[in-house]
Design goal:
By secondary structure, chain A is of the alpha+beta class. Chain A contains 21 helices and 40 strands. Chain A is elongated, with a radius of gyration of 57 Å. By secondary structure, chain B is mostly beta strands. In chain B, a hairpin with a 4-residue loop joins β8 (188-200) and β9. The relative contact order of chain B is 0.17. Classes of the chains: A alpha+beta, B mainly beta.
């Protein structure tokens, strides 16, 4: 029995001996709190993801000074220092629309929120919210927060938030164009006990954070660095142009996401109408929201500024109540933007990830110029895929609110999002090899981006942006030897190489048995600046050089024009004190620091935007080019060095290739050197670093003349060169403290000569002189390449000399003297043109033609001549009846003709009266003389032609004509004949007396039926006038009568009278 | 007598001390038992007690009104006691026990436990009415199905036992009790003062009456209620009462316990015991009137039927 007792006793005390063998904490509380399953990332909730670290190592946007500056801007007269003051300023309790709602905002902070809102007659809107948080509740269960809010249990009243959308109060700290009438949202928090305004508050139990960042990080606001002297930053996109207008907005009330008290009066049903009113008021504050009407009245939302957020969330609020008119009393969130309704996968992503975890904050972000970040479409969301992956799965600082972050990681959202990210960025991006979702907390190597450094200068390798790493290892890839890495096991190591080229460096980070590795390519370049010397001046140099950035980022006229960027990169009077000085530079620096992320350098918008990420402008950083990589690296290394202000930056101008024109003797060219683009420089020194003369393409020797610089200590200088080649000039500048230099490589080329000779084809030559000669200009003006020398010659393969002789054969324009005998000849000429370094022969072939004989024939003026015809044939004093009447000759004078050379003349009759034929044909005497005579036998029109010739091909002007109308001299009319009948006694009795029929009576009377005229013309032969009886009978004494006076021998006046009357047509005149 | 069942129901398992002190205490006790000179302790003096009982508890959640939950449970306990005579007027009594409880509905309250206690007793003389004074230290550990409740119990205090007459026996103790649970809600501290009076009706029958007052932490399990949140020193989502969301709240409270029992000896080594216990607890703080006009407190009733065997 004793043994049994001992055994039992031993067993009992053995068991008892174990008591207290183990330690005991409160580990059970962790599980119950529900936090163990959620991995926390960087724990930077409600902080902007790109905070600027101040000199004390604090995020500037999360300091008391930041909040003080904010309230100095939005409440310059301290009227809102307490809750009661704020309420008074916003007219609470003075009548008008004012309502209360109590709920728990599950997606926001989880507080029980007792919200009181009012809208004033001027359209301003104000809400203040008493937040109740039963902080002892573990595991996130806090529906009881609503009950605390309902009864206003002061024990759990953790603070009072307030937002007012009201006009600004502009002060001297604001720019001159500050618009006091523009309403914008302002954010406050008040102590729950004292009512004093608080600069810092702990909204989510993750520590004190500064206003307004803790609010505006999810209200669409910006948190730019303070302007020097602790002035709150000005957001350029704002219409108010008021410091403190951070472009944050009022959030709509996502009623479906709220939790409600069961207390009568505070259920959802009891408060649905109030929350609709609140949502309508929020809509009233959105830019471009249009007209909104409700039981409280009507508002007109303000117009949207050209560059600000365009009220994207308005559609969401309207959709909650059935569309633009908001007809539904009951809130219902079925909103699906068109840009997300693009397939079941995207719809799922929107409904289960974007809407619950991203939309609230992101939909209020973005500007008119760049709205990708509002995630209002799958395309926009996709464009942020890499950043989403980083912030959600790597850094763990998105979602940005702790409660939402926890809810996200407890949901199936991570899996959906991870699969989406994988589909966009590649399998394994957000999931592990086993398909699990990657979670923040694992080590992630970040060696920084590919960058350029200077040959022979230390360069920092910074792995401090790696995540969750406790050990670091930098190694140089064995494939790219030639560099050294100092302190390779530190987060910050030093890279050095004396040899230009690309080097691959690996960073491996580890933590708790996990590791990650990434590579970075370091480009070592001779011309890149020493990274350790880079200061703000160098960044300005990058931003201000050329027009890439400063085409858009320049001060714009106000109100702002479309597509005005939110930061301006030129140097101008930023503080409106009428001078542009160092203060403006400090302001510029501060503004630029708002685009710098010192905790994830490569995420700095200053680096990302010009690389083409969500940028409305062009690309400064084309990283596949050396210049782009250099620009990028200047800014990256500057940030890496701590983004130091000040400095001086030399800007010798961009490297260039200059096609030069060498002139003078010796042949020289000049290149202007301009260092005015240097930043903050007060002294300049230009030097020639190197000269590399290039071989002359035409084989001639280099000139051997050294280049020189004119005005080498001026900002603008001139480089004088005497040959082609590569020249490196260096501009060294100083501001009295810092020095900097910049090399400019100028590749001098000379455009090759291309000889061009003219004329070609057929060249018409004008001849002159005796012997006839002409000239042709051999022209080189079509040549390119700025020839310095010329040589003209006949082509060896052509007819040398056949076209004349060349004079001035070494001039740009030579002369070919052409004899008239060369007309018709074809010749080829060679022009050999040369500049300093190139030579080119050019040929031209042309056929010589005459430009014309140059003769203007002149046959005299056309006109009429009167002539008295006579019978030249007389026999024994008696005109022969067979004689051919002839008129006195008509002179033909060709001496008025003009033309070069020896002229010859040819006269001819080319037209005559129809009856001037045979014996009556006209005749020209001396028809090849300059003067000739024309003999005619009939009256009428004669055309005489004169052809003048000088041996050259005639032209129309070689021929002239003259119309000559030959008339019978006056006095030979029929009336005169009748008088002659009487005076000559023809009518005497026995003769042609009156009444006689045979011989007929020449008395002017009618005998029988015949008149005198009829009786006379019966004796006329119009064809051969000299054979007419009227003249032959009296002259010959035939026809039964004797010879009549005046018709023979010396007196043939009557004969001639009668003959000319016949030649004149025997008219009854 | 012990207040059994769901917390707070085991004053015997309360005490003080850190992890280190607990380990030192347990090791010292074990060392003393096995390596101390046996001249002072005769193993034939070891006494064992085996107890089996069944209990009905009408407020197993220690809550009020609609948050009250009831259950019944069975228990088995094996204890040993070794008196260790130190001198003619003093002795060291080493007690150890192990046991377990099994609940009908709320299995999360099922537990195994082990305790060890050392009590230094002093009696001035052997006269009948001479009281026995004692100072004790006790250490125990619980292994619940509820993760939150696992932990240690430590107690230290003073006791006095005195036969008043040949039929009347008085016992009293004052103790400081501390519990160190997995959850801070079950990290409790209290001071208790108790008294017990046994009256022998006959050689086989005994009536007993116990009174106990406690000032310290209590744990109540109830649905979320702002009134509780207002005054709770700690709370946690409970892992036993999971029919709906219920929190266990720790309050600072005054607690009074009354026990009335009847013991019937079945023979030399066995007895039947029937006991009724009632407890009333009221937190020191009450929520503000804007939260509730009600008083926060609870009442618990237990009836236990036991069989005890000594050997």
């Amino acid at each position: 029995m004793n043994h049994l007792r001992v055994a039992i006793f031993t067993l009992l005390f053995a068991c008892a001996g174990f008591i207290g063998g183990c330690g005991q904490g409160n580990s059970g509380d962790d599980a119950a709190a529900g936090t163990a399953a959620v991995r926390l990332g960087l724990d930077r909730f409600l902080l902007f993801p790109n905070p600027i670290v101040d000199a004390s190592g604090n995020f500037q946007t999360n300091t008391n000074a930041f909040a003080q500056a904010y309230y100095a801007a939005v409440d310059p007269y301290g009227e809102r220092g307490t809750l009661s003051g704020w309420m008074s300023r916003n007219q609470f309790g003075t009548g008008g629309p004012e309502f209360v709602a109590v709920f728990r905002d599950v997606r926001d902070l989880g507080y029980g929120r007792r919200m009181r809102g009012r809208r004033n007659t001027d359209g301003s809107i104000a809400f203040f919210v008493e937040n109740y948080n039963v902080s002892t509740v573990p595991g996130g269960y806090s529906l009881v927060n609503v009950d605390a809010a309902v009864v206003r249990d002061t024990q759990w009243h953790v603070g009072t938030n307030a937002i007012e959308w009201s006009p600004a109060q502009c002060t001297v700290a604001d720019p001159p164009d500050c618009a006091a009438s523009v309403k914008f949202a302002k954010y406050f928090n008040f102590d729950p006990t004292t009512g004093q305004r608080q600069n810092m508050l702990d909204l989510d139990g993750r520590g004190q954070k500064a206003m307004p960042g803790v609010c505006i990080s999810c209200h669409g606001g910006r948190a730019d660095p303070l302007t020097p002297q602790s002035t709150y930053a000005l957001v350029e996109n704002s219409l108010s142009r008021k410091r403190g207008d951070v472009q944050a907005r009022l959030q709509g009330f996502d009623v479906d996401s709220f939790e409600w008290s069961m207390t009568p009066g505070f259920t959802r049903a009891d408060q649905e109408s109030v929350l609709k009113i609140f949502n309508q008021w929020v809509l009233c504050s959105y830019p471009g929201g249009g007209s909104v009407s409700g039981s409280w009245g009507t508002c007109s939302a303000p117009p949207a500024g050209a560059n600000e957020w365009q009220g994207t969330a308005a559609t969401l609020i309207q959709d909650w109540y059935g569309g633009p008119a908001m007809p539904n009393a009951q809130f219902s969130d079925t909103y699906l933007p068109a840009g997300w309704n693009t397939g079941a996968t995207n719809v799922q992503l929107y409904r289960q990830v974007v809407a619950p975890f991203c939309r609230t904050c992101h939909l209020l972000r973005g500007t008119a110029n760049q709205s990708d970040i509002d995630f209002d479409s799958e395309v926009k969301f996709r464009s942020y895929a890499s950043r989403i992956k980083t912030h959600v799965f790597d850094r763990g600082n998105m979602p940005l609110a702790f409660l939402v972050y926890q809810d996200f990681w407890k949901s199936n959202g991570p899996a959906i999002l991870a699969n989406y990210i994988d589909s966009i960025l590649g399998a394994g991006t957000a999931t592990t090899s086993s398909g699990a979702v990657k979670q923040p907390g694992r080590p992630i190597a970040d060696p920084g981006p590919n960058r350029m450094v200077r040959t022979g200068a230390n360069a920092t390798l910074y792995g401090g942006d790696s995540l969750f790493a406790t050990s670091y290892s930098w190694t140089l890839d064995s494939a790219t030897p030639g560099a050294t890495i100092t302190n390779p096991d530190s987060a910050t190591a030093t890279f050095f190489s004396s040899f230009p080229g690309n080097y691959t460096v690996h960073l491996t980070v580890s933590n708790r048995g996990q590791s990650d590795s990434k590579a970075v390519i370091v480009t070592v370049d001779n011309t890149f600046r020493d990274p350790a010397t880079l200061k703000f001046a160098h960044v300005k140099n990058v931003l201000q050089t050329g027009s890439t950035c400063t085409t858009c980022h320049i001060p714009s006229a106000l109100p702002q024009l479309s597509a005005t960027p939110p930061i301006w990169y030129t140097s101008f009077d930023r503080n409106n004190d009428t001078v542009t000085d160092a203060t403006d530079d400090a302001w510029f620096y501060s503004e630029l620091m708002g685009r710098v992320n010192l905790t994830e350098i490569s995420d700095s918008s200053l680096l990302r935007k010009p690389t083409g990420n969500h940028h409305n402008g062009g690309s400064l950083f084309d990283l596949i080019t050396n210049a782009g990589l250099s620009n990028y690296s200047i800014i990256y290394n500057w940030i890496l060095n701590g983004a130091l202000p000040g400095g001086v930056a030399a800007n010798a101008g961009a490297d260039s290739t200059n096609n030069l024109v060498f002139t003078g003797s010796p042949a020289a060219a000049t290149i202007p050197l301009d260092g005015n683009g240097s930043i903050s420089a007060t002294s300049f020194a230009w030097t020639i670093v190197s000269t590399t003369v290039a071989a002359h393409p035409n084989g001639t020797s280099s000139t051997g003349i050294a280049p020189s610089i004119t005005n080498p200590t001026s900002a603008t200088a001139t480089l004088n060169v005497f040959d082609i080649g590569t020249y490196v000039v260096r501009l060294t500048v100083s501001n009295g403290t810092d020095t900097d230099f910049d090399d400019r490589t100028i590749t001098m080329t000379e455009t090759p000569v291309v000889a061009s000779a003219s004329p070609s084809g057929t060249v018409a030559v004008s001849f002159s002189g005796t012997p006839l000669t002409g000239t042709i200009s051999l022209d080189s003006s079509g040549s390119t390449g700025n020839p310095l020398t010329y040589a003209w010659s006949y082509s060896p393969s052509g007819l040398s000399g056949a076209c004349g002789t060349i004079s001035n054969a070494t001039s740009a324009t030579a002369t070919l003297t052409v004899p008239s005998s060369a007309v018709g000849n074809t010749c080829t000429f060679v022009l050999t043109a040369s500049n300093l370094t190139t030579t080119d022969p050019g040929t031209t072939t042309f056929t010589i033609a005459s430009a014309g004989s140059g003769i203007v024939a002149n046959a005299g003026a056309s006109g009429s001549v009167s002539r008295t015809f006579t019978n030249p044939s007389v026999t024994l004093g008696i005109p022969d009846s067979t004689g051919i009447p002839v008129a006195p000759t008509i002179s033909l004078v060709g001496s008025a003709s003009t033309g070069p050379g020896t002229l010859t003349y040819t006269w001819s009759v080319i037209a005559m009266p129809a009856n001037a034929t045979l014996s009556y044909a006209p005749a020209i005497a001396s028809p090849n003389s300059v003067n000739a005579t024309l003999t005619v036998h009939r009256k009428g029109l004669y055309t005489v032609q004169l052809v003048v010739d000088n041996g050259l091909p005639p032209g129309p002007s070689n021929t002239a004509t003259r119309d000559i109308t030959v008339d019978v001299t006056v006095g030979n009319a029929f009336t005169n004949m009748k008088s002659t009948f009487v005076s000559r006694g023809c009518t005497s009795a026995g003769c042609h007396q009156s009444g006689s029929t045979l011989p007929p009576s020449w008395v002017d009377e009618t005998v029988g039926v015949l008149t005198l005229y009829q009786r006379v013309t019966a004796r006329v032969n119009a064809t051969d006038p000299a054979s007419s009886l009227i003249v032959t009978c009296p002259s010959g004494g035939t026809c039964g009568m004797g010879q009549q006076t005046g018709f023979h021998d010396a007196d043939v006046t009557s004969y001639t009278q009668f003959l000319n009357w016949i030649i004149d047509g025997a008219q009854n005149n | 007598m012990q207040f059994k069942g769901a917390v707070p129901r085991d004053s015997a398992r309360q005490g003080t001390g850190s992890d280190t002190s607990r380990r030192l205490f347990a090791a010292a006790m074990a060392y003393a038992m096995f390596w101390a000179p046996s001249a002072f302790a005769d193993l034939n003096d070891i006494r064992f007690r085996l107890t089996s009982d069944v209990t009905y508890d009408d407020n197993i959640s220690r809550a009020r009104k609609e948050d009250k939950l009831h259950d019944s449970f069975g228990a088995l306990n094996l204890g040993a006691s070794l008196p260790w005579q130190l001198s003619g007027t003093s002795r060291l009594v080493i007690n150890g026990n192990v046991g377990g409880e099994k609940f009908k509905r709320y299995s999360g309250l099922d537990r195994l436990y082990a305790n060890i206690q050392g009590e230094l007793q002093y009696r001035k003389s052997g006269q009948f009415s001479e009281p026995i004074w004692g100072v004790f230290v006790r250490q125990g550990e619980d292994w619940y199905d509820s993760t939150l409740r696992d932990g240690y119990r430590t107690a230290a205090g003073f006791s006095v036992r005195k036969p008043v007459t040949d039929k009347l026996f008085f016992f009293s103790a004052i103790a400081y009790n501390q519990r160190d649970g997995r959850s801070k809600v079950f990290d409790t501290k209290e001071v208790s003062l108790r008294a017990n009076l046994d009256y022998s009706l006959s050689r086989r029958q005994t009536l007993y009456l116990g009174l106990e007052g406690r000032d310290g932490d209590i744990v109540s399990t109830a649905r979320p209620n702002l009134a509780y949140f207002d005054i709770a020193k700690a709370l946690i989502l409970d892992d036993v009462f999971t029919d709906t969301t219920r929190f266990s709240y720790r309050f600072k409270a005054y607690t009074g316990i009354v026990t009335l029992g009847y013991n019937f000896a079945l023979g030399e080594h066995a007895a039947l015991d029937l006991a009724y216990r009632a407890a009333y607890s009221r937190p020191h703080e009450q929520p503000p009137s804007v939260v509730t006009a009600d008083t926060i407190d609870y009442v618990d009733n237990q009836v236990t039927l036991s069989i005890l065997i000594r050997f």
